[in-house]
Write a structure and sequence with these properties.
4 helices, 4-stranded antiparallel β-sheet, about 35% helix, alpha+beta
């Protein structure tokens, strides 16, 4: 795919919405495209996450073994989904195993690349901080709404 196609795709990812073309170009140019064959794992649950992935083509099933030793399907994600978003900010581990359900492609964005973009475009940090703050507020609101169920 062409660099411009990657920029258009990245612009649709919620974390990157509102980024300028130059900011998205830096990500697209520094990122790596990977092909993942049907049935192959992109990453495994509990493995260290040093990068995030944007699904560029195809579908991935996300499995978790949180309830015992048997992997359970938690979700299916398609083109435009950002996987392991937290890995762009800090060292963490994968929460799921991601398996391609068909021949797929991803854009691999490393933490180093993302930090470089923040260094070159400090205003990006403000946008990302606002998104994180909104996400936390939404989670807190959702948890408060559920509080009565557990009393």
């Amino acid at each position: 795919m062409a660099l411009n196609d990657d920029i258009k795709l990245l612009a649709k990812v919620p974390l990157f919405q509102g980024f300028t073309d130059d900011q998205l170009r830096l990500i697209a140019f520094g990122a790596e495209r990977r092909r993942i064959g049907e049935g192959q794992a992109l990453f495994r649950e509990h493995s260290p996450a040093e990068c995030a992935f944007v699904v560029a083509r195809g579908t991935f099933d996300l499995y978790s073994t949180a309830r015992g030793n048997k992997a359970e399907l938690q979700a299916s994600v398609k083109t435009g989904t950002l996987l392991s978003e937290l890995a762009l900010f800090t060292l963490c581990e994968r929460k799921y195993t991601a398996v391609a359900t068909d021949d797929s492609e991803v854009i691999r964005i490393t933490r180093i690349l993302f930090h470089r973009m923040i260094e070159e475009f400090p205003d990006v940090a403000d946008v990302v901080l606002a998104r994180i703050r909104d996400n936390i507020a939404s989670l807190a609101s959702g948890a408060a709404a559920l509080q009565g169920r557990f009393s």
